Amino acid sequence: MKNRLIILLTIVFALLSCSSEPELTRKDYLAFASCLSRSQMAHNPELWQSDYVKKPKWDYTQGIIANAMLEVYLQTGNNSLLQYVQHFADYFILPDGNIQVYDQQKYNIDHVAGGNFLFTLDQIASKPEYQKAIALLRQQLLTQPRTSEGGFWHKKVYPHQMWLDGLYMGEPFYARYAAAYNQPELFDDIALQFLTVDRHTCDPRTGLNYHGWDESREQQWADSLTGCSPNFWSRSIGWYEMALVDVLELMPADHPQRNALLQIFQRVSKALLNYQDKQTGMWRQLTVFPVGNGNYLESTASAMFCYAFAKGARLGLLPEKYLHYARHTFNGMRRTVIRQNPDSTVSLTQCCAVAGLGGKPYRDGTYRYYVSEPVRDDDPKGIGPLIMATLELAKCKADIIVAKDGSGDFRTIQEAVNAVPDYRKSRTLIRIKPGVYCEKLIIPASKEHLSIIGDNASSCILTFSDYAKLPSPLFPDETLGTSGSATLYTAADDLYVENLTICNAAGEGKYISQAVAAHVSGKRVVFRRCRFLGNQDTLYTYEKGSLQWYDQCYIEGTTDFIFGWSTAVFTACHIHSKKNSYVTAASTPEGQSSGYTFFYCDLTADPEVTQVYLGRPWRPYAQTVFIRCRLGKHIRPEGWHNWNKPHVEKTAFYAEYQNTGEGANTDQRVSWAHILSDSQAEAYTPYSLLHPTD
Question: Domain holding 83: CATH number?
Fold first, then answer.
């Protein structure tokens, strides 16, 4: 095993040590992320040992390593990484959700970021204590001390102060909570944090932000007029950039402050280019100062900027050229600050150990102070962002690019799917660039292990307009039928789709009836941040025994617009009714353990829609459960309908648990529906429902 690792490292370093910019494949990037991860585990057998600590510690440094490790696990399937992180979580998190060595009353916002990885871990291997720990950290933000304008104090011991670091410590967790638990209103407060700190720390001359701001002007380091610290510390700006790109990824596209945050991100990113070292692509400890007097090329900030640029370009938040800048940084760091060790591990050198403002001994924020802080190897504040930057570059390095304008490998998605070898055992990544793709897309069972990722769901649109009553082109005496009307057909196992709109544009009317947007079969199918647009029968979860997961998706329709046989889990989705009718029509087979389960979903309707049922049974053993969802006033008091088949009341299973909103009152629900007890509800998690065969 050790010899294999040495060979792998030798190959990777051979690729990365070229003086020219090497053209790396996605596999190369994933191999390097894996090397970094394995080296981290070799250097720190316990994850809590990260950051050179001698006793167990819960902090943002350990959290960012945990988050990076889970992302590598999701990309590579290396189970040792999952075990490494889960062992860490299970050591600290007690059965009641309390976290060892965590003290909420200190109001240290760094500790909130320590739990950012829990959202991913809970999706992979759900446990009630993980959810309780998330709620505990959310509770800190509810009572975190604030400035007069509502900005979070960095710590209780640093009153009236906001630091750029703190935006990463609080806001990505806050945004993931808002997305995971479907509370979009929380983005108002998240935006407030960025707008407040930017208003006070932005320097109009450089476009950059000062490290800290003291509203009280009491600190020795604070300017008497502005309250700002005197210098631009690169890592603080790195935290700020990562916070912005992570939040913008999750922030609703129609949020009124989203554009303001996007402008901040674009301004800072553009300003940073003025200070990037041309030869290495890195940045120095003090951003705007040139070389000399100890102002060294600093690894942690450079890794953070690499991550923000690559992710920003991938998501369309930054121009495509920023991907080139990110690759330049990546290649320069490999040549300059990565060391191969005799024990076959790798190390990241030239990392600033720590820097801050105030405290004891007092840190005055001067140039001399920043360049005098210790420099060390393998700081987690560099390792974590570097792993995540590498993964972003891997995501940007698609196997196939589809672009409507001809700038990619193919102009249509179907051509790209057809080009993938049948039954390929390794994953194929197809990137969809913005455009309206008018095509009927078929992904056959032979195209397994396929990822289709759009740059942005609002601009990457797959659309067609077939409908059930449309005459068949080859058999005029026949119609297409419901199953024949879909825009997307997929029968492939292990399919992952992200950031794509799937639309059936047939409309509705007397001669149209059913018109399916997506007809989904296959084992282990995931749709994340996708939009399903249609009317009657929008989403057809077709195959019996198929496990399907819809995360943070928007699904709209009129009648039975989520229907079918599959086991399907919906987390933090927006379900929108356009007509007085029915949301679901499950046809769960007899003996199948579950049908449809909705967690933290938001059910809304057009203004004129006031009479909608949660579901009706297409087949006698239909199962549909809504857990902690927000039900609008359009939901009828009786909640469920028997489809005029009284006998199904004894076989169907319809249930609710702790839903909120005007439509959540269960006093008038049909007598044959269920209200889950606490113990019954605990058995329902995405993990438990989807894990049996995956």
Answer: 1.50.10.10
Q: How far apart are CA 71 and CA 30, in angstroms?
A: 11
pLDDT digits (tens, 9 = 90+) for 316-332: 999 999 999 999 999 99
On whether residue 176 sits in a domain, the answer given is yes
Provide the token pair at 72: 């590598």
Q: Do the Cβ atoms of 614 and 643 come closer than 8 Å?
A: no
Assign 22 a pLDDT band (cuts: 50, 70, 90).
Answer: low
Residue 528 DSSP symbol: E
More confident residue, 184 or 11: 184
- CA 410, CA 403: separation in Å to the nearest integer? 6
Across-strand partners of 437?
462
Range of the structural domain that residue 232 is part of: 2-396
List the end-to-end C-alpha distance of the chain, in Å, as a whole number: 27
> What does 240-280 look like in DSSP terms, one character per residue?
HHHHHHHHHHHS-TT-TTHHHHHHHHHHHHHHHHTTS-TTT
Cβ-based burial of 179 (10 A; exposed 0-12, middle 13-18, buried ≥19): buried
For residues 242 and 477, give the distance between their C-alpha atoms in angstroms, rounded to a whole number. Answer: 58
Is 165 among the catalytic positions?
A: yes
- Please give the DSSP secondary-structure letter assigned to residue 648: G
CA distances in angstroms from 337 to 191, 282, 302, 471, listed in the order given: 35, 10, 11, 65
Distance, CA of 437 to CA of 426 (rounded, Å): 26
3-state secondary structure 58-85: CCHHHHHHHHHHHHHHHHHCCHHHHHHH
- DSSP strand pairing (495-498 vs 539-541): unpaired
H/E stretch holding 437 reads: strand 435-438
Residue 18 predicted with pLDDT over 50: no
Nearest 5 degrees, angle CA 531-CA 540-CA 545?
115
pLDDT tens-digit profile of 304-320?
999 999 999 999 999 99
How large is the greatest C-alpha to C-alpha distance in the chain, in angstroms?
86
The pair of structure tokens assigned to 627 is 């857990």
- The pLDDT of residue 20 is 52
- What are the pLDDT digits (tens) for 167-191? 999 999 999 999 999 899 999 999 9
Domains: count for the chain: 2
pLDDT tens, residue by residue, 618-642: 999 999 999 999 999 999 999 999 9
Answer whether residue 586 shows pLDDT above 80.
yes
Is it true that the peptide bond before 256 is cis, omega within 30 degrees of 0?
Answer: no
Burial of residue 565, with CB atoms counted within 10 A of its CB: 0-12 exposed, 13-18 middle, 19 or more buried: buried
**Residue 118: partners with Cβ closer than 8 Å, 6 or more residues away:** 89, 130, 133, 134
Q: Residue 78: what are its φ and ψ, rounded to 5°?
A: -75, 105
**Residue 473 tokens, joined:** 């082109």
Bridge partners of 298, per DSSP, are: 283
CATH of the domain at 578: 2.160.20.10
Domain termination residue (choose one: 342, 369, 396): 396
Catalytic residue among 51, 122, 165, 378: 165
Last residue of a domain, one of 361, 396, 431: 396
Give the pLDDT confidence score for residue 21 in this predicted structure. Answer: 59
The Cα 435–Cα 438 span in angstroms is 9
Structural domain includes residue 420: no
According to DSSP, the β-strands at 441-443 and 400-402 are unpaired
Q: What is the mean pLDDT of residues 672-692?
A: 90
Q: Tell me if 375 is assigned to some domain.
A: yes
pTM greater than 0.90 (yes/no): no
Report the residue count for the chain: 694
| Assigned domain for 512 exists | no
Q: From CA 655, how far away is CA 659, in angstroms rounded? A: 11
